[in-house]
Amino acid sequence: MPEWDASAPVLPIHSEETIQSIARLHAEHRANATRHQLAVDRVTALLGRPVFIVALTIVVVGWIGLNGFAAILGYRPLDPPPFPWLAGATSLVSLYFVVLILTTQSRDDRLTQRSEKLNLELAILSEQKTAKVVALLEELRRDSPAVRDRVDKQADVMARPVDPQSVIDAIKETRSDGARASRAADDS
Prior knowledge:
mainly alpha; elongated
């Protein structure tokens, strides 16, 4: 039997289950990646490290230095100032970097969208559970002879689950009102 470690944080079972669900979501996202996507992720991760900036700086300074030093020694430099080959190479490499980053970002966006959908579903479920708890508390209050019976309009409203579509419609309306107000402010 393993010994209990008093210094280890104790998580409630529902927290542990949530952590495991998030870990499964990330593991599934990684498991669904193709070899090419994983390779792009590794390259992008490599390019995002500080050591890459140092290496790139060394290459560029070295290229300029070698071409400048060749000219000083009287040799014909491979890429004389203003270094058109270096400019072309950096443009091409920049294009590849952009494509790598966009590819990685696109894949990461899919994980973010799944996480956001899960968060929305959990928020809706939590709201429904909260409404049910409020309804049960109100029912208990009405049925309990020890508690004064009274009408609580706010509790009655809170006991009704919110229709997710009506919330979406209200958000859209608020955003369009905000956009109209912003355009009106810009026009004046």
